[in-house]
Amino acid sequence: MSLHENESTTELRCALTGRPLTPEEAYWAPPLITARQLITAFFKTLFTNPAVLGAIFLSELPDVPYAPEARPLLARRRSVEQAKLLSLLLVIAVVVVGLIFWLVG
Questions:
Q1: What is the DSSP string of 34-102?
Q2: d(CA 2, CA 5)
Q3: What are the tens digits of pLDDT across the range 37-94?
Q4: Whole-number pLDDT of residue 9
Q5: What are the CA-CA distances from residue 20 to residues 1, 3, 16, 26, 66 (Å)?
Q6: Which member of 15, 44, 47, 80 lies 3.0 to 4.6 Å from 64 by CB, making a disulfide possible if both were Cys?
Q7: Measured between alpha carbons, how far is 80 from 26 in angstroms, rounded to an integer?
């Protein structure tokens, strides 16, 4: 029995909109993880149990149901979260490079 078949016995709701779904119309995809959730999980794990950091971030997440009409919204939200994370990483890189030049120069 797959995960999707197991879910058909309970009421399905879109993970993004909350709309009730039938198993036939559900679009299954990994859950939306925000940049804030990712950063929070990273630092909590780093300070509480750093040995499992790789396992947490490299493990596969179970798919969750989405309404078919939520696909464009989900794609936009994923793109926004990726842009936030990339922006944060670029800011950190600029600060580190700036500090290196300041200390060396």
A1: -HHHHHHHHHHHHHH-GGGHHHHHHSPPPPEEE-GGGHHHHHHHHHHHHHHHHHHHHHHHHHHHHHHHH
A2: 5
A3: 999 999 999 999 999 999 988 999 999 999 999 999 999 999 999 999 999 999 999 9
A4: 58
A5: 23, 18, 11, 9, 10
A6: 15
A7: 23
